[in-house]
Amino acid sequence: MVNALRVVFFGTPRFAVPTLEALLGSRHAVAGVVTQPDRPRGRGQRVTDGPVKALAVERRLPLLQPATLRDPSMPGQLEAWQPDLGVVAAYGQLIPSTLLAVPRFGMVNVHPSLLPKYRGAAPVHRAVIAGETETGVTIMRVAPKLDSGAMFAHTTRPIGPDETSDELEEALAATGAHLLVEVVDSIAAGTAREEPQDEQLATYAARLTKDEGLIDWTLPAARIHDRVRGLFPWPHAYSFVDGRRIILWRSAPQPGEVAAAPGTVIHAGSDGVHVAAGDGRALALLELQSEGGRPLRAAEFLRGHPMQPGARFGGP
Known about the structure:
The chain has 316 residues and is of the alpha/beta class. Helix content is 24%, strand content 28%. The strands form 4 sheets. The chain has a 7-stranded mixed beta sheet. Strands 12, 13, 14, 15, 16, 17 and 18 form a 7-stranded antiparallel beta sheet that branches. The protein has a two-stranded antiparallel ribbon with strand order 3-4. A hairpin with a 5-residue loop joins strand 16 and strand 17.
């Protein structure tokens, strides 16, 4: 029989919700939830509850939303919950040492990569952008240095050739939630084992920026395709045609070779806008969006935005 632990949960976005749900469905007790302050969201920039907060409110869990985890009152507020263990899933800030020391078993983190690869803020997106064919989830101990703690367990998962970051992240969130509960059970039972990370193999997954979305058409078609799906659903890949910014939602590398300069439209029809890339192959743009418009399949997009072979995608 596994002893029940009192767990304090740190998390904010949708990725963290399955882990909190799994803990709520386990034998362990969620003593309280710490999540980021409410912020404007969506097109209207309305201030709404984040996904983790919404679930915490629905389940009537004790809730903290500090502006900073370095607030001097935070250790005392955590201690009042008497946690045995902390669980972190995409909280969005480093956990200071003063808080790591509060739970008697420390804190563990659900990280969507095969550590030590892709430490940092955007591991799923960076793996897709890099054209990786495999990733996974690692449950690790939270340490003061970013994503450097010893590993309790990991699980691997293939990345589909057309899978987008949001699709992959959703799958990893479910997988990670299940693995996390197994690790918490092992900590409670005293059977958990930790393996240090190899620092020499560590890579960093930096936070995404809007500027990264501008496509360099001299790259190979497959690499551009990886950027389109890796930057989905934010900040999106984009390019310009005749001074108009076009957001690229879906794409597909095409077989065969083309004789055209990178960025040149070689075909525009119901099967997509085919654009020459730097390796002599074409990338079909299957779903596009004009600035201020909505995403449209290529056939519908072209009805409102006619495009002829010879048009050029490029910078502003």
